[in-house]
Design goal:
The complex is a heterodimer of chains A (168) and B (406). Chain A is an all-alpha fold and 168 residues long. Chain A has one domain (2-144): Up-down Bundle (de novo design (two linked rop proteins)). Chain A has helices at 2-53, 61-75, 81-95, 103-138, 140-144. In chain A, helix 1 (2-53) packs antiparallel against helix 2. Residues 163-168 of chain A have low confidence and may be disordered. Chain B folds into two domains: 11-166 and 347-369, 3-Layer(aba) Sandwich (Rossmann fold); 169-344, Rossmann fold. Helices cover 41% and strands 15% of the residues of chain B. Chain B has 15 helices and 16 strands. In chain B, strand 10, helix 7 (200-213) and strand 11 (218-222) form a beta-alpha-beta unit. Mean pLDDT of chain B is 75; it is low at 378-383. The chains are: A mainly alpha (168), B alpha/beta (406). The interface between A and B is medium-sized, with 28 and 23 residues.
Chain lengths: 168, 406
Amino acid sequence: MSTVAYAVGAVVLLASYITWTAGRLDRMHARVDAAWAALDAQLVRRAAAARALLPLLPAGPEADALEIAASASLDAGEESREVVENDLSRALRAATPLLPAVPDADYAKAELETAATRVGLARSFHNSAVNDTRILRGKRLPRALRLAGRRAMPAFFDVDDTALRPAA
Amino acid sequence: MCPYSWDVPGGVQAHVRDLAESLLELGHEVSVLTPVDEPDDAALPAYVVPAGRAVPVPYNGSVARLAFGPLSLTRTRRWLRKGRFDVLHLHEPTVPSLSMIACFAARGPMVATFHTATARSRALQVFGTTLQPGLEKITGRIAVSVAARRVVVEHLGHDAVLIPNGVQVAAFAGATPLPDVPPGPKVVFLGRIDEGRKGLSVLLGALPSLVKQVPDVQVLVAGPGDVDEVREELDPTLADRVHLLGLVSAADKPRVYASGDVYCAPNTHGESFGIVLIEAMAAGTPVVASDLEAFRRVLDDGEAGVLVPVGNSAALADALADLLGDTERRRRLSAAGSRVVQAYDWAHVTRQIVEVYETVAVAAAVELDDTAEDPDVEDFGQEDDPGRVSETLRRWLAVVRERVAP
């Protein structure tokens, strides 16, 4: 009799643990989604700030490259996003030193700097959410029971953002 | 969300207070939930919501005053429910107190600041994995120093953004020297005088050699501790050089820094940040400090202050004498110091923290993670009894049950 009670107890415990872990995973995926939404918003903001520089830049290859990169960033799909954002960083680094020393340019540069800092923050938060999720999904129980369902494994987003800040 | 008693002085409490006030100045709405020992105290600022009295608990080698138990849980939940906050900012969520409760009870945009820099925390080693389900809900993590960030990375396996502790630079910059300081070149020391790692004994050991080089030198020592005991140990021929001021008020602290020609930080170990150096530099006083990792970082590798070998009284005496005899160099270091402290000014630090808030707050507002009902509790009069574990467990089980079988 007591064996049955123990077995039932064990099954109940295991079942609650599994449900709880599934809930945990669910929450973590939601966190990744929210972090991606935040990162996406900051990347768009940065591209907009980059476009705001265009009328201030002297015509030349740097201005052209920046225009192309900023538009590409606004149009990019999820797969090509990393490449496109890296291009934008590079174009920004090349273009910002050419800005004239006028108040408008200082303002646009400050906007860009804020946007770039936030991209850095959002990227760090996104990647740490991804990291937490991947660790939990990699554990034996969630893997064996496919607790994550059909959701894609979240991927890190890596862009060169240390160089995003234009030299002040 | 502050884990320690509001009315007991401490670094975390000061951080929360200064941050809250800077945020209010910027026009944000702020509510701070914290344990308070004297709830009748009318001096509580309007933004503070008391969560009951804290219980003294030995933690991490010292006694921390924490709030943990069914009443703290209920009050935290009620505060979260009523507040409908855009961002929940937890300080020290690994300390078993309000922040940890909130971390488990809430969901939504959460930011956590990690202050502790203790390389080895037994509690973290034991409970690190247990806390993971709560800590993994945090959206953005901030560490106040490189050492604190290392703790987060090594013990909890998370990354954290580095945003330093803030200092009210303006409060120090305009400070006037104390009225009754003795004439002559002055060296200032500020810190607990009976705590070995603050290094007062290193400074006093440097005194004989320093007096030989700078005959009219005076040393001002401010900080809590047994003044008589230090006085007894002093060499009688040098005793009149050392002015023991005891514990100084927060209002007088900037004036103590401003009274010195040189600020001396002979700390031997255990400093993770070096806020004293920043305060001294904010007051325009050039700094001579031990070559500790944290101090080296604050002093910009010696650009903004003089670094001396740790625990070496002879080297300290020479460095102090050199600097006291060189007005031009003091002026240069003071100017470099004023530049360095800008990065630690609350105005700057708050802006960085607001950027973190704005990055995480794109999601919905903070809410409770479950819909369980809470019992009514009075704001005060009842206290959590650490012995009432069964009651706590019962309430937690109710929450868990609700979550498992909705």
